[in-house]
């Protein structure tokens, strides 16, 4: 089963793409990894709880040993390449050309619903491969009810970065995603996202082609006169969000205020990159993902030099001179006027109460889960897929 028949109405000309990092780059990576030293033991890095001061020495030591001796990047490439992957040229309104990557499962049904699944940081399209795997096990290309489109956002992993001579914001990401979806022949489509993917869904919904949006992240400030009470579970979620803001958000301020510096720092050592990113996979999740899954993400970031190119969205909301200090989920101009669904995962880094989420758009579908965290597509792919399918059945006529 191929899932690779691009719709006839496409105006873009996507070309098949196969990921294969040159062997010399792989060899150089492993050499650098072996030579990258670990920090000495300290009081802080010998604490067992990563929520106190960050990743600990034992974790870093074991991870490096496994990365060097047992991890198989080529096997991961084979898995990625088992899905249809594409590159396509997309010209922006000012003539700047993006080389955009996306993975896809195209349906042969005429009425299939196109869905753009949008990742965040420190994620990538890899987050959604488990969902894509479930989809291709459940449906054939002939009866697949959806076109599953998973782009690499501009600057992330296999997509080229924004221009070097001007600013680029979340609304600009949304414009490129809209051009991708419409260019693939979808005059109507749906957006789904968490983290920066959810931020992107806000301006994406302003485009005519985007007919509905489902989110699993909706971090926002408390609205005026929220409609409804806050449950005990939601109160714990707000406590978690407050703890994140007070003790775990320094990375975002660094990304927003000194992106150039941290970009050089983390692209100089795979161990440094792993420490910075793996902390998030540990502390933002319900259960820590398998080490190999974390290494997949970090290794792909390394080979694509992704980190310095991909943290630009943080300047918009965590920079020194942001215009409002509000994220897009709290901005009135991005209030959803189209059908909006929200999945609540309790170990999200900032799970928002239903009463608050209602204030951010035309909420027509909601489901609360008792397990799962920030990387829902990676942690609970079957649960998130069920949510999206149920949402589509309700809103897509």
Automatic annotation (TrEMBL):
Keywords: Hydrolase. InterPro entries: AB_hydrolase_fold, Epox_hydrolase-like, Epoxide_hydro_N, Epoxide_hydrolase. Pfam families: EHN. Residues 15-128 form the Epoxide hydrolase N-terminal domain. One of its GO terms (biological process) is epoxide metabolic process. The active site is at residues 195, 314, 374. GO terms for molecular function: epoxide hydrolase activity. The keyword Lipid metabolism does not apply. Belongs to the peptidase S33 family. This is Alpha/beta-hydrolase. It comes from Pleomassaria siparia CBS 279.74.
């Amino acid at each position: 089963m191929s899932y690779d028949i691009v719709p006839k109405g496409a105006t873009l000309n996507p070309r098949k793409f196969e990921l294969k990092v040159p062997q010399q780059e792989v060899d150089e990576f492993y050499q650098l990894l072996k030579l990258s030293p670990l920090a000495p033991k300290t009081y802080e890095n010998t604490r067992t709880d990563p929520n106190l001061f960050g990743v600990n020495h034992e974790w870093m030591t074991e991870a490096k040993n496994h990365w060097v001796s047992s991890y198989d990047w080529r096997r991961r490439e084979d898995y990625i390449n088992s899905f249809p992957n594409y590159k396509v040229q997309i010209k922006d309104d000012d003539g700047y050309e993006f080389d955009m990557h996306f993975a896809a499962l195209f349906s042969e049904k005429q009425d299939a619903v196109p869905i753009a699944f949008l990742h965040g940081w420190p994620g990538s399209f890899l987050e959604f491969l488990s969902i894509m795997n479930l989809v291709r096990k459940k449906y054939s290309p002939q009866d697949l009810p959806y076109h599953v489109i998973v782009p690499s956002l501009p600057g992330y992993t296999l997509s080229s970065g924004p221009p070097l001579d001007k600013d680029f914001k979340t609304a600009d990401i949304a414009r490129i995603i809209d051009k991708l979806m419409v260019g693939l022949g979808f005059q109507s489509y749906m957006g789904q996202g968490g983290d920066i993917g959810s931020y992107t869904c806000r301006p994406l919904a302003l485009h005519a082609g985007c007919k509905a949006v489902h989110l699993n992240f909706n971090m926002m400030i408390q609205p005026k006169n929220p409609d409804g009470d806050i449950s005990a579970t939601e109160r714990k979620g707000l406590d978690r969000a407050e703890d994140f803001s007070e003790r775990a958000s320094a990375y975002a301020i660094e990304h927003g205020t000194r992106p150039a510096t941290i970009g050089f720092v983390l692209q100089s050592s795979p161990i440094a990159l792993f420490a910075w990113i793996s902390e998030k996979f540990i502390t933002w999740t319900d259960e820590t993902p398998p080490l190999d899954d974390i290494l997949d993400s970090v290794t792909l970031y390394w080979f694509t030099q992704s980190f310095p190119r991909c943290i630009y969205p943080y300047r918009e909301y965590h920079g020194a001179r942001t215009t409002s200090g509000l994220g897009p989920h709290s901005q009135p101009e991005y209030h959803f006027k189209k059908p909006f669904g929200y999945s609540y995962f309790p170990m999200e880094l900032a799970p928002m109460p239903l009463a608050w989420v209602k204030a951010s758009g035309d909420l027509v579908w909601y489901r609360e889960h008792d397990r799962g965290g920030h990387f829902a597509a990676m942690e609970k792919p079957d649960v998130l897929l069920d949510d999206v399918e149920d949402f589509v059945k309700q809103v897509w006529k």
